[in-house]
Amino acid sequence: MKAIDNFDLSQNVKFSTYAVPMIIGEIRRYLRDNNPIRVSRSLRDIAYKALQVRDSLVNRHSREPTIAEIAAELNVAREEVVLALDAIQEPVSLFDPIYQEGGDPIYIMDQIKDERDLDSTWIEGIALREAMEKLGERERLILSLRFFASKTQMEVAEEIGISQAQVSRLEKAALHHMRKLIAERDSSKI
């Protein structure tokens, strides 16, 4: 409609000559603006140039070029080429079938494993929490600062007002006590 509205009959040009580039541009603009993943124009340009260079190198050398060769030809960093090519990949759905022969299809989701949701991980978390609750307040604070707040022994020592050697000794004793509690808990379950 935009091509029809903007076409100037006074110009000595065929409608198709005017309309085709305009329609292609509108389609590209729509796809760019309504894509679920936004990719910068410069990154897309690098990706498309990399694909052209790849084709050129395949024709020249009769083999698949390396990323380093493509990057050298474009005079950009290898990482930038990889990032650009990854950015233009179409996203896939976890529910896309990857195999289907006769029976039930196998989906991408069936091939993904989440280590965080394993029963053993969940149970270990409970065991750690129970063992932490049985520690003294200072030991619990030291382990929390060290392993959950990622602080160094020196930082912990400054925060609670004791020496780094004391933090080290208390931490070691608390970990030993927790291991003992968890081992006792596990042996009582058998």
Descriptive notes:
It is built from nine helices and two strands, in the order αααααββαααα. Helix content is 65%, strand content 3%. A hairpin with a 6-residue loop joins strand 1 (97-99) and strand 2 (106-107). The protein has a two-stranded antiparallel sheet with strand order 1-2. The mean pLDDT is 85. Helix 3 (41-61) crosses helix 4 and helix 8 packs across helix 9.
Question: Which descriptor suits the 3D outline?
Answer: elongated
What class, by secondary structure content?
Answer: mainly alpha
Order of strands, widest sheet: 1-2
E-strand count:
2
Poorly predicted segments: none
Q: What is the H-and-E element order?
A: HHHHHEEHHHH
| Helix content bin | 55-70%
Distance between the termini: 76 Å
Summed over residues and divided by their number, the pLDDT gives a mean of 85
Range of strand content: under 5%
Structure annotation, total helices: 9
For the sheet with most strands, the description reads:
2 strands, antiparallel
Please compute the radius of gyration using only Cα atoms. 31 Å
Summarize the helices and strands and which ones pair or pack.
Elements: H1 2-6, H2 15-33, H3 41-61, H4 67-74, H5 78-87, E1 97-99, E2 106-107, H6 119-133, H7 137-148, H8 153-160, H9 164-189
Antiparallel strand pairs: 1-2
Brief description of this entry?
This protein is an all-alpha fold and 190 residues long. 65% of the residues lie in helices and 3% in strands.
